[in-house]
User: Fold this.
Amino acid sequence: MPRVPGVVVAGAQSGVGKTTVSTGLVAALVHRGLSVQPFKAGPDYIDSSYLALAAGRPCRNLDSWMMPADALRESYVRAVAGADLAVVEGVMGLFDGHPREVGAGTTADVAKLLGLPVLLVINVSHLAQSAAALVKGYAELDPDLRVVGVIANNVGGPGHGSLVKAAVEGNAGLPVVGCLSRREDLVLLERHLGLVPTDEGRLASDYLERLAEHIGSSIELEAVLRLAEKALPVAESASGAWPNEPVAQRTRLAIARDEAFCFYYQDNLDLLGAHGAELAFFSPLRDRSLPQNCAGLYLGGGFPELFAATLAANHAMLSAVREAIRAGMPTYAECGGLMYLCQSLADPEGRVYPMAGVLPARALMIGRRIALGYAEARALTDGPLLAAGERARGHEFHWSGLAEPFAAADSAYALEDGRLEGYRQGNLVASYVHLHFASNARLAPNFVASCAAWGARRC
Assistant:
């Protein structure tokens, strides 16, 4: 394929401002008339929503632990088609990833797989000349990684910025392409799972414009574009996850998407569509019924606990979902979707609301993080996504739990750490694990085929 310029915006550590810098960089470049394709390294959904909003294009997740290398490259190549530039926001620190598999799932690994140069964001609020030692260590740790420039965040003023720039450029040999002062009006809202998703509409209407102006005046955009030209061509590779030839639509799939349910890997949706599913989005908060003529249901993650009262008040939708599942409609529910299917859901204040009543459990907020990390799931029985014994990879991150654990006989998966997880009965699979469909090439076509077969029997 033709080479597309691109750059990875990585952090020396979590909390250095990667999302603000990456989002602002995308917005500033779009304001210059460029078509920018955003990506997020790692499994995070919320950062992706900011990048997508800034770019006006869907943001894809690139995770070298959840995705085979060929699938990661194929996802990247497909997404950058027609773009002028790719911007990849990193995850955690540059070399942080899977806790037991060195290098897997790291920003550095993604950059190397795609041949992309790296811009390193550092927090210099308590550093001056010492920033050079930090940068030099990150730049030289992995000789196969190309760190090509530095962005200094939380600079105290012009004099402080000059000290940092002179030290880094003189001692680490890398250009400092931006010095950003802290702007309280550009700090993003956070809560228990991280940033507040853009889907909730709480971002000020002029936020991106103000952020783009700040980034555009503080970062040398021309220098960034020159460094992005150092991107290497990415060889096209058929991973097997996407079909080699176009597949005709053969079924219609209802997908919950609103403020309460907004956590989806874009590749999951793309793969379902590529294998013949028409995607029909609906809102469990506002719609009164499922989309017409659907033969499958996908309930993604999100924040149902923050909208529990509204979800519970929509009796028509709860009934429609319950009846569809009881009729055998193939259904995949993950994390927030699982909570929605429980008998009830207790919100963060302990108020209890009735939910769809499909699963034999009550969901409640624990008040602390229950799970955070990668998960490899092995299907215990044949289901609409996986056959017994097949494996897929994903990620868990939740503060909720179940008052009653599912019976072992009803568990959907055995996880690599020995836990039984999720629930499967008939054509229903519900789990706290967010699966990445590119982790197993059979996931998407299996689910589409299950929906098509069920729909054909209903006709």
User: Anything to note?
Assistant: Residues 31 and 459 are 50 Å apart (CA to CA). The domain at 6-228 is CATH 3.40.50.300 (Rossmann fold).
